[in-house]
Structures are given as C-alpha cells and as structure tokens.
C-alpha cells in the first residue's frame, strides 16, 4: 500500500479474493519512499518533537504504516531509491539483548542517546512477552519470526524514539507467504516523562504502545498489505482490551465516527486520525458479540482470520455473516449506539457527547417539517426533533425514504425524560419507504427523537487509487435519503 493511498492495482475487482498484492506504480513507490523518509531521524526528523500531545499527528505519516507501505512498494523502486528503501527498512544497531522464550529485546546498555538501562530492557521483555501470550492464547497467529538474528523469536529494539517523534513502530521484513511477513518492532528507550509528559506514567506508555505495536506484528502474520484503517483501528482497539485501566486510546475518539460520522469508516488518508478513533467500531462489535477466546473478544479475531483472502470491509461483513447478522444492521446499530454512548458502551460515560447533524424544535401546532442527507459509504447522520412546550395528546409521525435499502438503513431513537430510550429499526418497503409514529410526543415525556440514516455500502471496485478499502471506490457510494416529521393530534 502506498503512503498516499494512491496505488492503482493492475486490475479492478469488486469483492472476492484480493489477497494477491497489486503492482505498485513507480510514482506511488516514490511517494511511499518520500513518506518513509519523514519517519527516520537520518532523514531530517530528529528534534521534531511532534509526538506530544497524542501518539499520532494529523498530516504526518504513522511510522508503522509508512514503513509498511514502503515495504509493499520496494520492488517497484530501482537504483538509489531501492538502496534508500533498504536502509530505511533496516533494523537498528544495538550491542546486546535480553530474551524470553518468545521475544528478544535488543539494546545498548547505558544512559543518553539510544542507550537503555538493563532493568528497563528486562521490563520491556516481560511486558512484550505478556502481550504475546495474550494474543496467542486468544487464538491469533504468532508473529512470523526471523530465521537469522534470533531464530524463532520476535525482535524488539530500543531507541530514543522521542527524537523521531514517535512512541513505537513495527515493520514487515521478509515475506513468508503470499500475504504474510516477518516483523521486528522498535520501542522507546525509557518513555521519560520529561519527553512524553505526565498523562501516563512511563510504564503505562510502554504497556499500551507494546500492545498496539506488537498487534501490528501479529497483523503482518496475516496480511502485511491489509487496509491501513483496519490495521490501525484494531491495534488501537486492542490496547484497551489488554490494558483496560490505561484508556490512552480515548484521546482519538474525537477523530473517529463517534464525533465525525460523515467521514467514511475506512478513510485511510494519512491526514485522517480517524483510523485511530474508529477503534470505537470494533469496541461496539466486541461488546455486541461478547464471546471471548482467552482474554479477548473473538469477533475481531474472526475478522483477521478472513483478512488474508479478501479486503477489510469484506472480512468484517463475512465475520458478521458467520454470526447470523449483516454489516447493514450492525452499522445502523453502531450509529444508534453512538447517540447514547453512556447507555450503550461499558465505559461510555467517559466518552465524548453524542453528535447530530440537524436540530428542529417542534411547537404545539400541526406542522410538517422535512429534510435530507446525502451520505457516502460507511457514514451516518442524525436529525434531532425536540418537542417545545408540547402538552398531552400530541403525536409525531416520522416518514423516511431510504435510498438503496439493500445497503442503507434508518433508525428512530426516542429519548424519554425519565432517562429511558427506545430504539426502532425501520423496515422500508420495496420503494424504500417506512414510517414510525411516536405516541405521547409531549415535552414532559420526551426529551428528543433522533432520526438516523446509515449508509453501510461495503462492496468496492478495487484498485482505483483511493484511500478507502482495497484502494477502491464503493459500489454504490453516495446515497440521498429524505425524512418528514409531522406533529398532530
């Protein structure tokens, strides 16, 4: 995958087996090289100090993604560019190592520069070993280990990453199948509060970064060319599953669909921090389908088990089908859940307040109001209807016209003044029309009514140079929905 999301495939496909990686154009390969140069200190990043606040900065390439894109593009480079790619993808140089039965931590003992204390190196070894065991016990593939440096073990390197502007990264290294690759990872040499701040302790930063980055190594054992939105969203999701009390990933919720529902769930543009904030989608799935394997919800494992033979949204769709449901229904439920996070997520009381697209106050008189939403694939929008000084005996009749109801859905959520909520999933007829009548639409009984449209279109014409699933164009993509609301008695 190119860092800019602009790699066209040699042929376009809709659905099906996309496991064979498309040929990367020379132009896109050079773009991937240029992006990767920005994450290495010997390429003018040293001293940038862009890492605080937050682990990622909009507009700047994530190190794991940039190096993964370069790894996927390297065969399309030649001459000095290929040599530069090899240098950027090369492992750090260290003096010694400390190993468990599954990982080796490489470091240079001492203080200053890239050096790390032996005590800290041992701590990293123990933390990463714990993370490894959690993933393996949950059914995930073991990261593919190299056969030369420390045969059979995954290598972790310690450097002063703060000077590069990062918390950590992993990079694929040697292909072991059509889609999978070995990996090595790099973590900071101390996560000192003087550099990374005091929002988390150094140990907390180590733990969540290890959980996130090592999950990338696991992902590479499935598909090192998978869509970056799913790579980053699931890696950010798993942080909180492994270390539930740290909650570092909440900082990204402002960029995901909890707050920015008009940006497609699978938007993987390098400037979009939503690929981290959209961990909330996988939190929704893992709470909705709560069965666990080991210590982790099984539904995300089911998605990754399908990833090597298809692309991200199809893998999600297939995992849901195996559970007797559809992406259309679950995406609509996800949209409704985000209108009341405190009521629908286990930790939702600490999440951001819900967002709506429009608000209409309805006084005590007979009237009809209307509107429309045009939605891109994997986005949603809500219209809020509020009774204004309405007494007894009034009703609210809602009518919706859902475009392409095979891929789109509408939900009506009724928020009552007693704190309860009713959620109604409308079933449009063959023309896309559905209605819902709200009895007792009075200010004393009802606080608000939300009419939500969700576009769950997830089939793609792949290889079209976009930043979406399989670099494709959703088919269909946009859809315009209409709503009407009538007060009467």
TrEMBL record:
<protein>
    <submittedName>
        <fullName>Uncharacterized protein</fullName>
    </submittedName>
</protein>
<feature type="region of interest" description="Disordered">
    <location>
        <begin position="1"/>
        <end position="26"/>
    </location>
</feature>
<feature type="compositionally biased region" description="Polar residues">
    <location>
        <begin position="1"/>
        <end position="24"/>
    </location>
</feature>
């Amino acid at each position: 995958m190119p860092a800019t999301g602009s790699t066209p495939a040699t042929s376009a496909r809709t659905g099906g087996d996309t496991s064979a990686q498309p040929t990367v154009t020379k132009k896109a390969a050079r773009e991937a090289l240029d992006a990767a140069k920005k994450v290495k200190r010997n390429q003018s990043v040293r001293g940038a100090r862009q890492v605080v606040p937050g682990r990622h900065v909009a507009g700047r390439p994530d190190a794991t993604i940039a190096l993964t894109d370069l790894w996927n593009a390297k065969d399309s480079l030649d001459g000095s560019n290929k040599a530069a790619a090899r240098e950027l993808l090369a492992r750090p140089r260290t003096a010694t190592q400390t190993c468990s039965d599954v990982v080796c931590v490489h470091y240079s003992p001492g203080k200053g520069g890239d050096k790390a204390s032996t005590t800290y190196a041992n701590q990293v070894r123990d933390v990463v070993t714990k993370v490894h065991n959690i993933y393996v016990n949950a059914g995930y593939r073991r990261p593919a280990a190299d056969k030369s440096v420390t045969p059979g073990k995954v290598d972790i390197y310690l450097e002063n990453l703060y000077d590069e502007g990062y918390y950590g990264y992993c990079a694929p290294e040697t292909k072991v199948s059509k889609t999978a690759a070995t990996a090595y990872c790099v973590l900071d040499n101390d996560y000192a509060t003087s550099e990374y701040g005091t929002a988390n302790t150094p140990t907390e930063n180590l733990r969540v970064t290890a959980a996130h980055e090592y999950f990338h190594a696991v992902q590479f054992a499935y598909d090192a060319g998978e869509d970056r939105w799913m790579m980053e969203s699931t890696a950010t999701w798993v942080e909180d599953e492994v270390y539930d009390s740290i909650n570092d990933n909440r900082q990204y919720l402002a960029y995901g669909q909890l707050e920015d529902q008009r940006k497609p769930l699978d938007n993987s543009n390098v400037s979009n921090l939503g690929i981290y904030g959209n961990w909330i989608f996988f939190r929704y799935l893992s709470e909705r389908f709560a069965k666990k394997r080991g210590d982790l919800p099984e539904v995300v494992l089911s998605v990754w088990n399908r990833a090597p033979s298809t692309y991200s949204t199809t893998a999600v769709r297939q995992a849901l089908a195996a559970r007797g449901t559809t992406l259309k229904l679950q995406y609509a439920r996800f949209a409704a859940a985000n209108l009341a996070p405190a009521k629908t997520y286990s930790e939702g009381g600490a999440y951001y307040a819900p967002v709506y697209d429009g608000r209409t106050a309805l006084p005590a008189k007979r009237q009809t109001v209307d509107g429309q939403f045009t939605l891109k694939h994997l986005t949603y929008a809500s219209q809020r209807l509020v009774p204004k000084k309405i007494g007894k005996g009034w009703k609210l009749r809602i009518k919706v016209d859902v475009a392409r109801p095979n891929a789109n859905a509408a939900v009506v959520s009724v928020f009552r003044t007693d704190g309860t909520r009713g959620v109604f999933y409308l079933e449009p007829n063959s023309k896309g029309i559905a209605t819902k009548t709200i009895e007792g639409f009075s200010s004393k009984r009802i606080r608000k009514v939300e009419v939500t449209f969700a576009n769950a279109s997830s089939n793609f014409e792949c290889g079209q140079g976009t930043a979406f699933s399989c670099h494709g164009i959703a088919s269909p993509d946009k859809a315009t929905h209409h709503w009407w609301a009538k007060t009467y008695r």
